[in-house]
Design a protein that fits this description.
6 strands
Length: 136
Amino acid sequence: MASTAAVSQNAAVGIEPGAGVARVGTTAPSAKADFAQELARAEDVRFSAHAERRLVSRNLRLDEGQLAQIARATDQAAAKGARDSLLLMGDVALVVNVPNRTVVTALDPSRMQNGIVTNIDATVFVPTNDVAGSID
């Protein structure tokens, strides 16, 4: 069960309460509940505790549309065989572990000291019109 602090952080960044999991999309009813649950899990985009703290500290809120964009960008990276990808969304950069569908950190490109992101194998540019806020 998520702690009160974790639930507050999740709510602050627009992430559905519950262990840092943001649900994106819907699953059609299926005769096999296990398959439907597996399909729903495949659509999840999770945020590590570190990524949640970074988003909260920068007062960035992600709405359902932005979460859907992150999920689509993760799908695109997966289709190309990427494992760790940099998603560039306006004034925020997210590093995503693609196989686990987990956002592992959030970066502010304008505040990076050396402008280098290491340990990624792909970059996905996400349309900026889907980013409602920016990092201060």
